[in-house]
Amino acid sequence: MSAIFARPSDLESTSCMAILDTLSNTLNRLWNDMVDKKMYVTGGIGAIKQWEVFGVEYFLPQSTDEGGCYAETCASISVMMLAERLLHLDLQGRYGDIMELCLYNNVMTAMSLDGKEFTYVNQLAGSNTDKSVRHSWFWCACCPPNLARLYSSLGGYLWDYGSHDQQAFINVHLYTTAKLAFEVNGESIALEQKSEWLWEGDVAFEVSAPDSLETTIRLRLPAWTQYEFELTPPPHPGCIQLCDGYLSLTHPYVAAHPSFALRVKNFGPQHIAMHPHTNQNTSTLARGPIIYYAEDIEQPLGDGSFQGCHH
Ligand SMILES: [Zn+2]
Questions:
Q1: Where does the Non-reducing end beta-L-arabinofuranosidase-like GH127 middle domain start and stop, copy by copy (predicted)?
Q2: Does the chain have fewer CB atoms within 10 Å around its N or its C terminus?
Q3: What protein residues have CB closer than 5 angstroms to ion ligand 1?
Q4: pTM of this prediction?
Q5: Residue ranges, the chain, pLDDT below 70
Q6: φ, ψ at 72 (rounded to 5°)
């Protein structure tokens, strides 16, 4: 369903601003309803397996034997697609936060490290009737090729960029080690980021942009950082702005510092409580963008399950 919603958000390039406004409002309302009331802590959606649909608000059972938790890999990929498009329409960190949550907790987990086995359902708890295991293929094999498509286009999710007159911008949505290069009026702009993201919150940047352009770089600060950060070299007052979860480095800062580094704070373990309306007696631990969970060691799930594995 979120794949269908991703289409109206492609209308950015049309001149039908009134239609775009209406669709944006509708998308925003649906997005908020999905994220606030129908999404698992891992970014999985689709609680009801039989029909691959949402349940009523806060119906978020942990596993098949509790009556739900489909959280299909494809569904989270679609959420990422929608988030990426919404970031084009309206640069808000909350879209990037969910994109990152889905990527690391309901999408990357869906493929084994050797790339040979996949999950389709991403329930939060296994059971003897429906173990949490990866399979080499499926009768209806939508998820493995969808993962291949996502991985091959991952660079498009990391950042977007553009220019207008003599101004250029780069919006960095995800942190990793990667390099972006593009041209504006025949001149090259490049931005490289290096980090051990996932495990630590330091990101080093190298930027090269021509003097003839005013270049702005915007960096997403995930909400779990509580928007606390350190920028090195430190900026002069007025050279940076924090707006809707993105830290804007204005042209004077970018021009003066071809090398700079971001350190996000509050990367350490954080406890996430379940919403009381879910009626779930579980506790979740997060560190940075990763959600951790553990199953009771006494649960006899047998070979092949995630129990005791590297999940
Ligand atoms: Zn699928």
A1: 170-232
A2: C
A3: 74, 142-143
A4: 0.91
A5: 1-16, 295-311
A6: -60, 145
